[in-house]
Amino acid sequence: MTTSAVSLRGVTRKYGAVQAVAGVDLEIRAGEVVALLGPNGAGKSTTIEMLLGLARPDQGEVRVYGGSPAEAIAKGLVGVMLQSGGIIEDAKVGELLNLVAGLHKEPMPVGEALERAGIADLRDRKLKGLSGGQQQRVRFAMAIVPQPELIVLDEPTTGMDVESRRDFWASMHAETARGRTVLFATHYLEEADAYADRVVLMRNGKIVADGTAAQIKASVSGRTIRATIPGANLAALAALDGVRSVETRGDVVLLQCADSDATLRYLLASTRAHDIEVTSADLEDAVLAISAEQEALA
Ligand SMILES: Nc1ncnc2c1ncn2[C@@H]1O[C@H](COP(=O)(O)OP(=O)(O)OP(=O)(O)O)[C@@H](O)[C@H]1O
């Protein structure tokens, strides 16, 4: 049996009256790239802090590569990129990276870390003059310099413009291609959709959905079929098994389907439908729907 990279069991954490994390169970296998999604205050940062040993759970157990977070970090197994802190304003980029490398047993050469983070040209610049996006890249270089098995990133692209975000994810992709395990918190659904193997959605301190982006989309909203159907019998379409709703836009019929395959077969066999398109809801629709469901249950 392979050891999980990360294992959280029944983890809770309160701040005063606020239940920041309310019973989280999460296993992350080696090599997985996991996005932690959720609205402000969902408990993402607190969960990350507990798995890094920066906050102690009130209840439950946190394991990183079978040991405590502190042990995993001491072994250089974990690279971290947090939202703030960790930067010495008066130091030069190269000096800071040397300092971090010096704390680890088998760091990669600093020049290589800078190269991989796309900031080789900033080596002799002081941290305080850098833009927010450049500072984020320095944090990323700090995260990878220990050659960690697991990289944990809390909202890594906050403050970056579109181009920097794209470059950042290209650098990140090179790390995941090397088989590293990655957990990142984000507010950008498209980042979760594009870069994660698995999406974990948190709300009010709990995990409310966990699966691939495709599964999460499918679990909520099924698919939409759009087709031109001359003389469509809308009542017959609405009565089909697996059809949730029917709308028309002129000759075009939109069918919300739980089972789009069966509906497609029917359309092709029994109607004059043409120009058929099948689309799945995007992750944003799914997240909104799950959040609304949770709201209704609360
Ligand atoms: N150190 C703290 N002291 C007091 N309350 C805290 C502390 N850290 C977190 N909280 C509270 O716990 C809840 C969860 O916060 P957390 O930062 O984990 O959420 P998040 O999902 O990371 O949110 P965001 O997307 O805004 O970063 C919030 O209500 C927050 O105000």
TrEMBL record:
Alphabetized Gene3D superfamilies for the sequence: P-loop containing nucleotide triphosphate hydrolases
SUPFAM superfamilies assigned to the protein according to its UniProt record, in alphabetical order: P-loop containing nucleoside triphosphate hydrolases
UniProt subcellular location: Cell membrane
An individual GO BP term: response to antibiotic
Keyword Translocase annotated: no
A molecular function GO annotation: ATP binding
PROSITE patterns: ABC_TRANSPORTER_1 (PS00211), ABC_TRANSPORTER_2 (PS50893)
Keywords: Antibiotic resistance, ATP-binding, Nucleotide-binding, Transport
GO CC aspect terms: plasma membrane
Stored InterPro entries: AAA+_ATPase (IPR003593), ABC_transporter-like_ATP-bd (IPR003439), ABC_transporter-like_CS (IPR017871), ABC_transporter_ATP-binding (IPR050763), P-loop_NTPase (IPR027417)
Keyword Metal-binding: no
Protein name: ABC transporter ATP-binding protein
Domain of life: Bacteria
Species the sequence originates in: Kribbella sandramycini
Membrane topology according to the record: Peripheral membrane protein
Pfam family, one: ABC_tran
Domain spans labelled ABC transporter: 6-229
